Amino acid sequence: MSGACSSLQERVDDVRSGAQDLTERGRFCLSVARAANALEGGNYETAADAAQEALAQAPEDLRGDARRLADAAEAVRAGDRSVLQDPEVVAAAERLRDDTRAMCDPTG
Fold first, then answer.
1. Of 90, 98, 89, whose CA–CA distance to 71 is shortest?
2. DSSP string covering 41-74
3. Which residues contact 75 (CB under 8 A, 6 or more apart)?
């Protein structure tokens, strides 16, 4: 009986862990979408805030690009729009867009 309870507890723990991973991924996906939409709409305050949220939720393999974009969004918020033309920022944005789409878009 205790073996069955132990096995059940392991399954419950696995489900909780999986749910936490999905929650973090969902927050990241929503933050990236919010940042992109705000930037396109010229709302630089919201874009910078959302970019910081995305950075906080970014998976390890996307953290470098997320950091570059969060820094760029802060520069734009401070009035430096030229950063949007920086080839490294543009490349990071394209990689993050593609990687986020692959991770977040269930329709693939």
1. 89
2. TT-HHHHHHHHHHHHHH--GGGHHHHHHHHHHHH
3. 83
41/39 Cα distance (integer angstroms): 5
Give per-residue pLDDT as tens, 17-27: 666 777 888 89
DSSP 8-state symbol, 107: T
- Specify whether the backbone of 86 is left (phi greater than 0), alpha (psi in -120 to 50) or beta: beta
Given a contact cutoff of 8 angstroms between Cβ atoms, the answer to whether 65 and 96 are in contact is: yes
Average pLDDT of span 38-54? 93
Count of C-beta atoms within a 10 Å radius of residue 88? 11
The pTM assigned to this predicted structure is: 0.78
